[in-house]
Design a protein that fits this description.
Layout: H1 3-27, E1 30-36, H2 43-62, E2 71-77, H3 82-95, E3 100-104, H4 107-120, E4 124-126, E5 144-146, H5 151-165, E6 170-175, H6 178-193, E7 200-204, H7 212-219, E8 225-229, H8 232-245, E9 250-254, H9 260-266, H10 268-271, E10 275-279, H11 286-299, H12 307-326, H13 332-343, E11 348-350, H14 353-359, E12 365-367, E13 386-392, E14 395-402
Length: 404
């Protein structure tokens, strides 16, 4: 082989290798790790979240995939526990080679697994409320996106409800973790801005058979309402013991602790009159209609019953739109850089992956989601609307929307 033939062969080999590399990236599935609370305190929401993630992926793949790449889901149960979440996340990242983690519900699980995702340089999308999750210390690489309000945001909503309902002497009870304490601390700050004071505050440890001593401390100061940063299991015990005292003050509970499972666990008499505050889906949007149809098909119930599943739907769509915007050969860092670009204004308003995919051919887009408008703040947080519901005759009925 002469010099000219050698150079031609080398050039041809280089072009083939480059083409193969581009083909490989563009045609290799993008793996999503669905890390959801199938068991544990978040079990009422986790299965719906997981099935919604699969449904969203099916819709995106049916539209041709993102930037020519099919999405693939690898699912695991974090058991609503940090230790189990870490083990599941390590498997998803190190063995399954996922390129993003979506659907983390518990703040404890989020705080425990984000360092693993940071080390792997992959995005993490959560519904968790602990304020520190998106702090510069935890979200040091800008890879974490919160699709729900912070605990502080819930606290502000609780304060709005307290003021609107005319309460004057609130007390707080908080589960001793980042979410529970963060929620009641957010309430304390918001209530103080309204000129109010909290008459008593108790932080309690989990997994106790009884909370009578903590409850008696609260009841001794005669509050007119008790604001709780709690979960289903501990709320069940606390409300049973409160009902046995014969006291009649009101309770304001987060929606994840006061749902149909709580009514079934303690009965309609105990839950009568409970006030429930929750973030609510973007129910008038086209995106919600698509999500709701998928959720009804998967779970045989309304999508409005599981706001976290609506958030999971948006996580997948946003990730797919970011992949589409970044292009077929984009690395994860380039995809991550597009997440806020496809969700925040300016840009053409879109409500589905297919719509966004077409609009990206001519310019920027602004995804309007099923769970909220999905406009991320500088700290990668969202601010959805809230509602106040009241439990009456065992039914949870919305009374009004709360904006903060």
């Amino acid at each position: 082989m002469n010099r000219r033939q050698l150079l031609a062969a080398m050039t041809s080999a280089t072009l083939i290798a480059s083409a193969r590399e581009g083909w490989s990236q563009a045609n290799t599935p993008f793996k999503i790790g669905a890390l959801n609370p199938i068991t544990g305190s978040g079990a009422a929401y986790g299965t719906g979240m997981q099935k919604t993630i699969f449904a969203a992926v099916d819709e995106i793949n049916g539209a041709g995939g993102a930037a020519g790449r099919k999405l693939q889901v690898v699912a695991d149960d974090d058991q609503s526990q940090p230790q189990a979440g870490v083990l599941a996340a390590k498997k998803l990242i190190e063995i399954d080679d996922v390129q993003a983690l979506v659907g983390i519900w518990s703040s404890g699980v989020a705080l425990a697994t984000i360092p693993l995702a940071n080390d792997a340089n992959i995005p993490v999308m959560v519904t968790s409320g602990a304020p520190e999750i998106t702090s510069p210390k935890i979200n040091s690489k800008g890879l974490v996106y919160r699709f729900n309000a912070t605990g502080e945001g819930f606290g502000q909503a609780f304060a709005e409800v307290c003021a609107r309902e005319g309460f004057k002497r609130p007390a707080t009870m908080a589960f001793n973790n980042a979410s529970g304490v963060g929620t009641v601390e957010g309430f304390r700050k918001a209530w103080a801005k309204k000129g109010g004071e909290i008459v008593e505050a108790v932080v309690y440890e989990p997994n106790q058979p009884s909370y009578r001593s903590e409850l008696q401390k609260i009841l001794s100061v005669k509050p007119d309402v008790i604001v709780a940063g709690s979960y289903l299991a501990d709320t069940t015990i606390i409300l049973r013991e409160w009902f046995q005292t014969g006291e009649t003050q009101k309770w304001i509970l987060p929606g994840w602790a006061a749902n149909a499972d709580l009514v079934r666990a303690v009965g309609a008499d105990v839950t009568e009159g409970l006030l429930v505050v929750n973030s609510v889906s973007n129910e008038t949007s086209s995106a919600f209609m698509s999500y709701d149809a998928a959720y009804r098909k998967a779970m045989n119930q309304s999508g409005a019953d599981n706001v976290y599943a609506a958030m999971a739907w948006d996580m997948v769509v946003v990730l797919a739109l970011a992949i589409e915007a970044a292009g077929p050969n984009a690395e994860i860092a380039a995809i991550n850089a597009k997440i806020k670009e496809v969700t925040n204004p300016p840009g053409a308003m879109v409500s589905s992956f297919a719509e966004g995919k077409n609009a990206l051919k001519v310019g920027k887009i602004n995804y309007e989601g099923a769970s909220s408008s999905v406009d991320f703040s500088a700290t990668s947080d969202l601010i959805p609307d809230f509602d106040l519901s009241v439990i009456a005759d065992g039914k949870i009925n919305r009374r009004y929307i709360v904006k903060i």
